[in-house]
Structure to design on (414 residues):
């Protein structure tokens, strides 16, 4: 099959006249993009290295590369080999945020520059790499233009933080606190994050708040700010880590919202209080709790865990008992939604990329830069989020229809 040739590659007689300099620049662009997607996969696998099956085999591993493909650019094709990931945790699996599946052409330069910059590619490489991709006369290649773009992103973030939320109802919300390093400050700020699912099943970033650790007051300030901008209806269910001050604030601001503790966080906290030799069996018993088809069988597995381990590992069992009621709330919602609402995965998976960026840059220079970076990265990730499985059932949740063990409760006819 004949390779793609850019019109500049040939003279009037059809003979290739690509210069050595163009070949060097194009190869530099290829290496930069290849390094970016390799780093993305390494970070993704590292983020889930603690996730293992009953045989202690990793659920997320590298699995070679996909077949090489040409990415068509302004001066011809750049050959890319995309790493492959085997992810047994869910049906969705890994999806590159840099090079989407089946992608064959580069996007507009206004999208490519922030995407590569925010994902940790050194700004020193931009001029040569982007010239290779878009040609010498491409706009937006100078350092001053990149600085200008960052100022535009900051303004976008500030405008986003005061946008109105009137008329939008969030059926489910996920909450977490994410810590970051800032080079010019001694303290590590905790960014409070809330993601919501709308009535039509779309997931969206609701807000990012510059909190003081994960205190109840910080969360209360955050939620009150959302309410002042129009988020006045209680969500049906909130999902989060048991250690958050979020829950106290939620009870005061959205008292009718049910609570679901994240099983991934809970599992890690329990196993941390047990020796490694017993962790595989303990993890298997924990899985039996939240993967059971009914709440009754889940509670039997819960009781069995306590009988089996209380005498020897009291701290681990107390950790499990601490949030008993809130661990099994998901059984009162449609079974199609369970995989979405048992954990805070929508936040955890998204912020794996954000953490990668902060490691690449050794932390942002100031708080507003950190907030802007988090907003832009999440905003890009949001475009690839899938709607909730069984989203048509959300209208029934909003209507207050009761569910038991994931099934709609039918009214008894007298």
């Amino acid at each position: 099959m004949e390779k793609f040739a850019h019109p500049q590659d040939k003279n009037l007689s059809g003979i290739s006249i690509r210069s050595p300099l163009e070949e060097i620049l194009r190869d530099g662009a290829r290496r930069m993009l290849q390094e970016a997607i390799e780093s993305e996969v390494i970070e993704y696998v590292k983020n889930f290295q603690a996730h293992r099956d009953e045989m202690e085999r990793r659920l997320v591993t590298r699995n070679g590369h996909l077949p090489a493909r040409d990415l068509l650019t302004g001066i011809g094709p750049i050959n890319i080999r995309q790493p492959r990931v085997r992810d047994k945790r869910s049906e969705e699996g890994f999806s590159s945020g840099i090079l989407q599946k089946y992608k064959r052409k580069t996007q507009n330069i206004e999208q490519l520059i922030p995407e590569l910059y925010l994902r940790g590619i050194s700004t020193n490489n931009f001029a040569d790499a982007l010239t290779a991709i878009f040609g010498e006369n491409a706009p937006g290649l100078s350092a001053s233009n990149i600085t200008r773009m960052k100022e535009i992103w900051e303004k976008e973030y500030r405008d986003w933080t005061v946008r109105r939320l009137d008329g939008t109802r969030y059926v489910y919300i996920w909450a977490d606190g994410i810590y970051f390093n800032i080079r010019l400050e001694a303290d590590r700020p905790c960014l409070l994050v809330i993601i919501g699912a709308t009535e039509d099943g779309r997931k969206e970033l609701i807000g990012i708040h510059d909190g003081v650790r994960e205190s109840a007051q910080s969360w209360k300030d955050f939620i009150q700010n959302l309410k002042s901008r129009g988020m006045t209806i209680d969500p049906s269910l909130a999902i989060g880590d048991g250690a958050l001050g979020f829950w106290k604030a939620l009870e005061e601001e959205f008292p009718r919202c049910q609570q679901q503790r994240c099983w991934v966080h809970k599992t890690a906290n329990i196993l941390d209080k047990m020796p490694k030799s017993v962790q595989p069996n303990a993890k298997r018993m924990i899985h039996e709790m939240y993967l059971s088809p009914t709440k009754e069988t889940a509670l039997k597995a819960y009781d069995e865990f306590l009988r089996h381990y209380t005498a020897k590992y009291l701290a681990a069992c107390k950790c499990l008992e601490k949030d008993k009621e809130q661990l099994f709330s998901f059984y009162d919602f449609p079974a199609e939604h369970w995989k979405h609402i048992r954990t805070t995965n929508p936040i955890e998976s998204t912020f794996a990329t954000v953490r990668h960026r902060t490691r690449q840059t050794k932390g942002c220079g100031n708080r507003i830069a950190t907030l802007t970076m988090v907003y832009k990265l999440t905003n890009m990730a949001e475009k690839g989020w899938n709607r909730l499985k069984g989203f048509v059932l959300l209208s029934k949740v909003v209507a207050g229809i009761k569910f038991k063990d994931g099934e709609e409760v039918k009214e008894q006819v007298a």
Q: What stands out?
A: The chain has two domains: 7-141, 164-398.
